[in-house]
Amino acid sequence: MRISHLAIWTYNLEGMRNFYIHYFDASSSEAYYNHSRDFKSYLIKFDGDCSIELMQMPGIPKTKNDTRKEYTGLVHFAVQTGSKQKVDDLTEQLRNDGFSVVGEARTTGDGFYESTILDPDGNRVEIVA
Question: Rounded to whole angstroms, what are the CA distances from 62 to 48, 57, 59, 73, 124?
């Protein structure tokens, strides 16, 4: 078995779509729109098997989680770049473009080289080699 996709509710559907396409070399499906529910979504596809479904619909409450603190539940997801240099370069590009870097690039105790940034909605994204 494998993970097919993760789903993220957002009030910034186009901004989130553009973020993942631009910074993570992802591609996007055509917009899906369910008129009766006023539900809109995109499936963002990465190189490999996993995708992110970005979804928007009125009435979905905003998260109460603090983006700077840890909490129970889904905390982050990781995008693999293939090299330490790509982790460093992408982290610096995101920082220079105004995105928050909440974990500087480093080698973790379990051997991963990674940084952690916040996407436009404040979701934690690890960038790993």
Answer: 30, 12, 9, 15, 16
